[in-house]
Design a protein that fits this description.
- 32% of the residues lie in helices and 11% in strands.
- The chain contains nine helices and seven strands, in the order E-E-H-H-H-H-E-H-E-H-E-H-H-E-E-H.
- Helix 3 crosses helix 4.
- The chain is globular and about 60 Å long.
Length: 264
Amino acid sequence: MADLHPGERSDGEPKDLGERSDGEPKDLGERSDGEPKAVLFDFSGTLFRLEEDESWFAGYTDADGAPIEGESQAELMRRMTAPMGLPVPMDPDMEADWHQRDLDPVKHRRVYHHVLASSGIADPDQRTRLYGRIANPDCWTVYPDTADALRLLHGKGIRIGVLSNIAYDIRPAFVREGIDGLVDAYLLSFEVGAMKPSEDIFAAGVAALGAPAEQTLMVGDSEEADGGCRALGMPFVLVDPVPTAQRPDGLLTALRHAGITAGL
């Protein structure tokens, strides 16, 4: 199987603030002067990350009977969290459900069981157990500076939203970390009825936070999905979805490059 994130950076810096050869961030383009009045964050690969736990795979084997371990585990988790594209081959009906997966929990379960089966998890019970881990917000690991980033914004009176393509409720992850009270609005695709990169979900986020689009910053890990905010004139910062241990201050760095500097 392929590596988890080909070309990953390991220094925790945002990916497309992008960097010029001199190490300075590229111009964000749409950013207006001064601090944004609101910030929308993606969930997976931005605030939290689904990281494989070897205990989840105890006794798991592929179709040839070989243990699922090491790089195979990492590649499997990459396929289960890739924001865009097809992680495995699909027939037309399955592909149609794939593109709607984050609007419908039933389709979500169906397509990810297919991904697991196509990735070598032949035992249906093993697929069910592993999918249960993936769809459990308590199994997601928080990035080291998520709480600090949210508290910084909250303290400055900047409204905060979480905008995610997801088919289940992720609020319990924020409750677990004691940071749910810092979030003003959750825009979850299965509740909103729209998915990134559609303008509709970004428009819903802007409306929920009550700030003009050009003063609402989007922070996410997918140029294709999260970068769709640009269609509304929103500024965007791309962070790298590397393992949490490799990105200790990526969110705070992203906010600094977006003009939020006090206290950093």
